[in-house]
Amino acid sequence: MTYKIKSLIYFSCFVLASLIYYMVDQHDQFQEQMANKSYVEANFHDANSLEQPKEDQEEVQP
């Protein structure tokens, strides 16, 4: 193999290793942030799924 091909392979391996290290570090930071913060659960209701059936609503509304 020529020097250029070896250099390209080594550089590609370095970039790949750096990318993997960055992704693992970001994942660890995200997990740490999730563990440190408290989040509030919110219940969202769809406008179509109200307590009254849809037929009753149409009868009440003109």
TrEMBL record:
Residues passing through the membrane, by range: 7-24
Keywords: Membrane, Transmembrane, Transmembrane helix
Domain of life: Bacteria
The protein's name in its UniProt record: Secreted protein
Species, as recorded: Flagellimonas pelagia
